[in-house]
Amino acid sequence: MTNTNSLSDRYSDFVIKSLENDDKSVHILWDCCGNTYKQLGHKIIADDCSDPLVAIRKENIIDPSSVSAYDVFCAQVESGIIKGAERNDLEIDLSMKLEGDSDYELYHIYILFLIGKSGKVEFAHINIRKYTEAEAFSKGVLSVFSSDKAPQIFAKRISRMMNKFADKEIAFIQFDVERFKLINDNYGVEVGDEILKFFSNSLSVILNDDQPFCRLTADVFMIVISFDEEDEILDFIHMIDSMLTGYKGIEYRLIFGVAIVEDRSMHTRRLGDNATLARQSVKGNALKNIGFYNGRLKTELYQQQTIEDDMTEAVIHDEFVMYLQPKHCISSGRIIGAEALARWIHHDRGIISPAEFIPIFEKNGFILKLDLLIWEKACKQIREWIDAGIEPVPISINISREYLESYDVVSKLLELINKYDFSINLLQLEITETVDTEGTSAVVRKMKESGFTMLMDDFGSGYSSLNMLKTTQFDVLKIDRSFLSEFMESERGRKIIEHTISMSKDIGLDIIAEGVENNEQAQFLNRCGCDKAQGFYYSKPIPVDQFNKKLIEVNT
């Protein structure tokens, strides 16, 4: 009769001997509770450390570009030892060199856990081996077929996962790096590639076999997970966010889009597209980096895409036109100026509301081109008044935040004034109070030094009005329409408006009220000392030919 204990001992001895004779791989048997380990096969670390993973890091055998991913791997192992493991193995591919004078090559680290009754890892077998050339080539091919360009394998993994969890909810999660191009510009393409490699390696460690993921195009990744409660999605995203940000101290922000599967018969590509729509919906949102897909969002993003598809052609066909809204003297009724506003007269849709296209242009940067178009139209109009013998009135133009932050706006405006040859006091500049930044005061100072009249637009619409008034040298305050309409409703509110006007005069500022809608508002403002107004009571924004007719009728 065979002695089972003897057989077991002989088998253990055979396994140990086999590992010892494996000079192509590294084998580390690690007693996680006793803080001891034994190396078998190819030895790469000293035997005087209690944690082999720490010892590996100290040996400087890991490519610096792979160290951050290795740290994520170690954190997952440590969590299994301290808190408990949800899986019995982990693996990661890293660029390493086990010989001092060799080149970095692709290695596979696989760690198998022995989990105790407490759920914590008590023992581990670490295996490190180099990929053969054929294996490395196969991995490259596999990664291509797991991408969005050839999604066969990824799609099959998703299908198997959804079948396995037929009784659970499924979510498609996409993420990318906000303004990833800036990383390439500031740190180099190589660093950008390192970050993407860090993402891939880290996700392979963090996610289990039932959470398929792939890198789509550029810096976009997608993960598919199962869940019971929606809070699990947020917890999962926050975990991914914390694990993947801060590579080598570089600051960047991840943007996530979530599409919860409502129809399992829908193609995985369409489900991924829904996650894309959700991700794009929070682009440029400083307060939010997670978007959820819904039907209304799809409609809004479709409209946005339509506008972006048509905007360049609209410039070519001169569909962006300048409207002018008159500014009136309340006491005399004369037109004393105008504000230039952009309108889009689409070749098929007719007039598109500024509320529909301006926010999109501000987000995608096209506002810079639109601003420049309107500035030049305003300057050209002033020149046409002078040539026609019409006494010109100042036209105020809006300066977007993007121009303040990105361009030498003063030089551009002076160039236009010189081109059309008129006095600088005929072109006034409006800056909204919501663009209060460190650089705003310096730009306004330069504008004033050049001779421009500066208007603070939308005064009272936010919390930064008084602070911006203190730090930035304006000539004119424009009371915001919401400030006027809301505060006119009570005696206390009217007192606030009255004192705002009085304060402005005390510090040498002229004042004009926007959004005046009736005679009561106009007369109240006049009694308070504000004799300039614009709004629908006087005129809505109108085409230039209508404004010219009105200007001649009222001022002559």
Task: Tell me what the structure shows.
With 556 residues, this protein is of the alpha/beta class. It has three domains: 4-131, Beta-Lactamase, CATH 3.30.450; 139-293, Alpha-Beta Plaits (2-Layer Sandwich); 314-555, Alpha-Beta Barrel (TIM Barrel), CATH 3.20.20.450. Helix content is 46%, strand content 22%. The chain has helices at 4-20, 52-58, 67-82, 133-144, 152-164, 180-187, 189-206, 230-244, 268-281, 295-316, 354-364, 367-388, 401-406, 409-420, 438-449, 465-471, 481-487, 491-506, 519-528, 544-555; strands spanning 25-31, 36-41, 89-96, 105-115, 121-130, 169-177, 213-215, 221-227, 254-260, 290-292, 320-329, 335-346, 350-352, 395-398, 427-432, 453-459, 476-479, 510-513, 532-533, 542-543. It is elongated and about 115 Å long. The mean pLDDT is 84.
Radius of gyration: 33 Å
Query: Helical amount among residues, as a percent range?
Result: 40-55%
The top-level CATH class of the largest domain is: Alpha Beta
Query: What is the mean predicted local confidence, pLDDT?
Result: 84
Structural class by sheet pairing and helices = alpha/beta
- Model regions low in confidence, pLDDT < 50 over at least 5 residues: none
* Overall shape: elongated
The largest sheet is: 10 strands, mixed
> From the coordinates shown, what is the CATH architecture of the largest domain?
Alpha-Beta Barrel
Number of strands: 20
What is the total number of structural domains?
3
Relevant CATH superfamily of the largest domain: EAL domain
Q: Determine the number of helices (DSSP H or I, runs of at least 4 residues).
A: 20
